[in-house]
Design goal:
heterodimer, A: about 200 residues, Protein Transport Mog1p, Chain A, about 35% strand, B: alpha+beta
Amino acid sequence: MSGDGFVFDAPAHPRWLPLPLEGDVDQEAAALVQRVAGHSASPDFLETTTAWVAGTTRVVRREVQRVREERLRPTFAAWVLLPEPDLLLPGPVAFLRAGPLGRDDDADAALGSVVDLVAELHGPLEVEGLETASGPALQVRRRPVRTVDGDRLVEEQRLVLWARPDLEVVVHLSLYAVDLVEGGRAAAPLRELGASLRWDVV
Amino acid sequence: MRPAARGGLAAGAALTEQVRVTLDGVVEVVGGRTEQRLPSGTVHRAVLLADADAERLLHTDNHHQGGALLLLDAAGAPLLALLVLDWAPPGSPDLTALRAATGVDAVCAALGLPLEPAEAADLDALARHSGALRAVLHSPGPRPRLPRRAAWRTAWAAVLLSIFTLLGASASDGGANPVGDVLGGAHGGVLGLLAAVLALCVGVPTVLASLALHRVTRAPAPGLDADPVVLRASPATAVPARVVGHELQVTPDLLLLRRYGAVVVLPGPQAGGVAQAVLEPSAVRLRDADGLLYASLCADLWCGSPAARDALREGLQSAGLEVLDAPVDAFAPLDLVEQTTDGAIAQLVGRPQDRGGVVAGPGRLVALATGAAAAAAGAAYQSGADWQDAPAVVLGVACAVLTVVLTVQLLLAARVRRADAVLVQPGARGVAAR
């Protein structure tokens, strides 16, 4: 798969359902669900599942458009996390994106170009190394705090981030969960997806 | 947070026990056998243990989906542990909804704390101090009179020792032989007395628990205080008598659902809880204004005819609930309790100690233990040493009396079950009453 001089390959994973970012939403959603579950599911189930996949895809596409326009960042792929292998129910979404990086920038600068490092966090920012099919990466967990109508909400963002100043690019696989328990459940699948992802700049 | 559906000795707990957070941020556990108060600022973290970790660290008897909520202090020491399913309404279909419906999310929000998943460092610390963790586990309803596994083992030990005693006594009659030498005489007497003591250890609590259950079941059933609207099951066909007592009481603040003798209290429309009743072809769904499901009622039992359905609709509306009609069922199955009218699955509601059980099962094992021990005590009197005569008489008579009492209790319980299974024709049951 490719876009904007970026190519990538993500092996299939039983917990991740790739969302169609191109083409007619309803047709693509129906085709996707048919491929994944058409052999064993009832027509009612296929219809219901196609509806939520299409709905999620529309939301994701609006988000992709917003990030492209506001932050000038392309999104190359999006996957929705399933609660269990091959259990077609909605969950949080992971995005594969890229942005510019200076030749002299380090990992901290790369991270700072992706997330707001001065935002209020609940607990520390956690960063660990991760070996991936695309070389060494960082595994990041941050818990930003938002105040909404006086209520203090703690959310969770998890990233697998590749800082490549030699290519002048930072690539990141990012997932946002409104719930820390949901974010915790996404940790291992996101790590597995990032570890198996192959990308390159052409 | 209010207890999940409980019956028998725990029905009162379903009505009175709560875990709540005051406006000052104080965590209170009230209305139960113990009360607890965690001052404001004491709780620093709210952590959710996954199922497997909860089972491992808290030694729960059954596999609990939903895990456990832990409230930890600043040093990470557990202050309070709650099994999520112990506080769940009957209808929660998935784990995220379970947290909302049990009130776990509301407790965390009231404390101003996010609910965090337990991580490796948490699990290591909790495992090192698992005794302290189990000490703060609060389960609603009565505590088991004895640890169930220990009670089961004690009962079987009494049976086995009785068998050995009787073998020894029979082998002692006549000439010398190895079995008689080892298990007969004074040795056998000691085994028999020990069997009787062990049998009394499980027999006495069993009888006392059964008597307590008998008192509770003869007392007026617990209900809501504030002049509720009462809606009763109204099947169109004959159903077992045990279904006749199904009842829903509704007040502005609370709902009480009684099925198979088990009671669960749900928040009402003015408490941000159940605000809608959705009438589907197979079910009546009780949910809040945002669609969170609290309970499902079997339509065949609760409104088995069009007239009963209309009466139920009017009753629910008069109770202040919004009633919606749905032409298709949202999902199947219903919550487990109402999948059958024979009550077999209903026995899974609650804990054995709710029904007066000390050992798992209806109590036949305990009766066997006391009966065998009575015989063993008799053998000890016959063939044991002289000093064993007096204790053999006392213990033997006690075991014999317990055996008779337990047998009578078992027979009475069987009679009640047969009566509950008798089919009752549908009649003009009250659907809505004040």
